[in-house]
Amino acid sequence: MTVVDFENVSKSYPIYLSPGDRLKELATINRYSFHTDFWALRDISFQIRRGETFCIIGENGSGKSTLLQLIAGILHPSAGRLRVSGRVSALLELGAGFNPEFSGRDNIYLNGAILGLSAKQIDARYQQIESFAEIGDFINRPVKTYSSGMVVRLAFSVAIHVDPEILLVDEALAVGDIYFRQRCMRKVHELRGNGVTILFVSHAIGDVKQVGDRTVWLENGRIRDIGATDLIVAKYLAAMVQKDSAYIETRHVPGAGGAAATIIAPEIVEQIPNIDHRYGDGRARILGIAIVDASGAPLPVLEPGAQVVVRISAVASEYIAVPNLGFMLRNHLGVDFAGTNTLREGVEIPPMQPGDIYTVDFHVQLPELYPAHFSFSPAIADGTLHNYVMCDWIDNAITLQMGHAEGQVYGYLHMPCRVEVNARLGSTAAPKPAGEVA
After folding, report:
1. Distance in angstroms (rounded) separating the CA atoms of residues 149 and 135
2. Which of 34, 35, 202, 383 is 20 to 30 A from 128, alpha carbon to alpha carbon?
3. What is the per-residue burial (b if ≥16 Cβ within 10 Å, else e) of 358-386?
4. Are 323 and 382 in contact (CB under 8 A)?
């Protein structure tokens, strides 16, 4: 069932050069226009199904907040049709909907009443709201005395405890501390499981990839792309890298003489099992990637704690002044789990002339990871860690299953750990066996 339906929706704001122009326009009863229209959204069309988590990404000023405000009913479309079915609870701008002179307690009742809850219904939820917010005695103090993080705590707690059918979250969680953000993300997952429709705006791409069923990418008020979250996020990140590369002025020093012998690696990987998405300027490209053991034999699965070699081959089609090869390891949710590259590991590759082929081996000691699928995304760039141009990036080029560890893995991984009982820290004496008194 569709709960949010945008049909060719547009939203414009009148821009006046001076306050007097607004008065002139009113005085002429709209016979003359003294403003220009700024179109924050143009011809937006999509549908959101009940229980879906729908993410919205894009650069600042792309229209993300305006779109959520239309759904919340704060704004009305300038053109097109918008239909929203269900109780909407919104966590938009910091402190939106709160009266700064009222206490936190009073604002809980005020917001609940705005959302259509009776005083009795709010009474039944009040203790849960206060407990989740964890702001202590500040609940009885004016909101104007709160820190920004405390405002977010209270606002989020109210938003999730009023039985929303549609929850809007607009970047507000970025203000909270990491402890509260983790609690909020767990709550978002819980609401997803309960069938709540969630619209989530964030610049934290990791959060988007964790929660999003589908994602829309807005650019200059229009839909640039829409679809499965992993694919849209990959395209968005590629565009941002390319934009950053265009901004950075990287000077390439021509190769000396052009008569140097072409460098060809003694062993070359020429297989790329999968390409979900690929981007870069093409001056160098990945030839292949393989996950092998120390002897070079391909690994069918990843074993927790094993030593593996991530082997990547790349070829240059133009001069690459500072080659940097690396990879990103992602988990089954598409979240960037870990990664590295040659410069990060302190290895400097000589400049590459056109036709040069390098093969780089990353000898990795795998931690004890939970059993799931993990993918490797290889890349080659030109430049330093802080100032580079992406030449070639391949999303999820190879995916392998992680086997089961000998012991239980709690969470995502098991940390290397040595356990002592009744030991004296800093002492060179051997620890006493368990049960013996020192």
Report:
1. 10
2. 202
3. bbbebebebebbbeeebbbbbbbbbbeee
4. yes
Q: Which CA distances in Å does 264 have to 254, 268, 316, 352?
A: 20, 9, 11, 11
Q: Summarize pLDDT for 175-213 with one digit per residue, the tens.
A: 556 777 777 778 888 888 888 999 998 887 878 888 889
Residue 85: CB atoms within 10 A of its CB come to 14
Question: 146, 179 in Cβ contact below 8 A?
Answer: no
Q: Which residues contact 351 (CB under 8 A, 6 or more apart)?
A: 253, 255, 319, 320, 321, 322, 323
Question: Which residues does 429 contact at the CB level (< 8 Å), separation at least 6?
Answer: none
- Token pair recorded at residue 180: 């509260």
Could you tell me which residues are beta bridge partners of residue 340? Answer: 327
Q: How many angstroms separate the CA atoms of 427 and 419, rounded?
A: 15
Angstrom distance (rounded) from CA 360 to CA 381: 14
**Structure letter (DSSP) for residue 375:** E
**Model-wide pTM > 0.85:** no
Going by their DSSP bridges, the two strands 79-84 and 53-57 should be labelled as unpaired
Domain at 278-403: CATH code: 2.70.50.60
Spans of all domains in the chain: 2-239, 278-403
pLDDT in tens, 117-135: 888 988 998 999 999 888 8
Closest to 391 in 3D by CA, of 327, 340, 317: 317
Per DSSP, what are the bridge partners of residue 375? Answer: 330, 399
Provide the pairing of β-strand 53-57 with 197-201: parallel
Cβ contacts of 224 within 8 Å, gap of 6 or more: 58, 217, 218
The number of residues in the chain equals 438
For 366, phi and psi rounded to 5 degrees?
-70, 135
Q: Which two tokens mark 347? A: 């290895």
